[in-house]
Amino acid sequence: MDLEIIIVVALNFIITLIGTLAYAVRLVGVRTGKIAISFALFNALTLLSSTANVFQLPILTKYVDTSQNSENLIFTFNLLMLVVLFATVTGAVLIPTFQRIFSKAVESFSIEKSLFKLILHSFSKSGVKYIKKCVAIPVKSNFTDMSFKKLPVKIFIYNVITVALLTAGVFAPIYAGSLEPDLSATCITLSGIINGIATILLSLFVNPYLSILTDEVIDGKYSEADFRGCVVGMVGSKILGTALSFLIFIPAAYAVVFVARII
Known about the structure:
By secondary structure, this protein is an all-alpha fold. The chain has one domain. Helices cover 86% and strands 0% of the residues. The chain has helices spanning 3-21, 23-32, 35-66, 70-112, 115-122, 125-134, 141-144, 153-179, 184-189, 191-218, 224-262. The longest helix has 43 residues, at 70-112. The two termini are 37 Å apart. The model has no long low-confidence stretch (mean pLDDT 88).
């Protein structure tokens, strides 16, 4: 495997893992009652994801530009989407551990009010010891008191579609450039066609519903178990959406090529 692909695989794993753990942030906010601090701390973590994304796109684009084997490219993109799926499942498994660690981080930050001190403490002997104590995997008892009644089917479906489009939207325009080399730059810039639909669904339906439900749980209108069930369901929809991206990847690439030819 080429070094470029190894790097892109690693970057995609980091990006997807952080994106999956994001679902647990609302749980931590509800549990600690510190929604704003929870999102502020997680935004610092997403800087790592954003930085990884900045590097992966030009590396992957250059790899496609210099590759002469179309079948090899399809294998490469399928491998990358498989890595995304694996990272999503890994993130789902790590959510209990992340919740415990992140809850402690939120409580500590609310006292220290210093991100730099928090980072230093996490690498200290006591910090590392606490992180080891927090390691946990999902067990049956985590789901026994869980309810999925606060996750509407339409929100679940919207998120499946959103995740599938966002995943395919990263890779399909780059592959489309290999299908139409003379319009490769145009194809890459047309990623907004795929991502735009996903962004609309996310901004108008999924995120507003989760935000309203978060506030209602904090106000005591619904239980934490109801909210936890909703979050678990959303993680499940992310896994399904990632799997769906395998099916729409090629059609999405040809759709990008079609639009690039007519504009």
